[in-house]
Design goal:
Layout lengths: L2 H11 L4 H11 L6 H13 L10 H22 L2 E6 L2 E6 L7 H19 L3 H11 L5 H8 L3 H21 L14
Antiparallel strand pairs: 1-2
Length: 186
Amino acid sequence: MSSAEQARWFSEHVHPHEPALRAYLSRRFPSLPDHDDLVQETYARLLRVEDPARLAHPKAFLFTTARNAAIDLFRRRHVHPHDSLADSEGLIELPLLDTPLTIAETLERRQRREALTAALSALPERCREVMLLRYLDGCSGKEIAERLGISLGTVKGHLLKGVRDCARYFESRGLVEAAPAMKEPS
């Protein structure tokens, strides 16, 4: 695809969705400080697609690419903590060297991840889907209800069941201490 064709495709299939994309990023990732950078990264990723005209659903691809770029940004932030140093022009952020995990820490993380995966796998399909949308994708209860075509009350019920069943799963395997029983008010 020539650069002129690519520019035309971009202006017809991507650029009209920018306001909706910005609203989505603001709603979905409110803790990110600069959505402009995320939009630019999304556009850069789209421009690297060999033949974007072959995309069946460019808008869906745009939003998915933006979501992935945001998740990548969160991962980079988590993996590379920063310290701020003052200089005469303001703040400079310098990445700290990560201290390598010990073998025990690596194994513990792996075991926790496997236990969480197993606990989620044990949930009924719809309950698992609601839990993943809430805790992995960060969707609100209202967004989950709209996306799955169920009531907000049903979403809340699935979340309650999911959290309760996962806690029981962890307790039964000795991964967490059992919570003390709550007394009914008199």
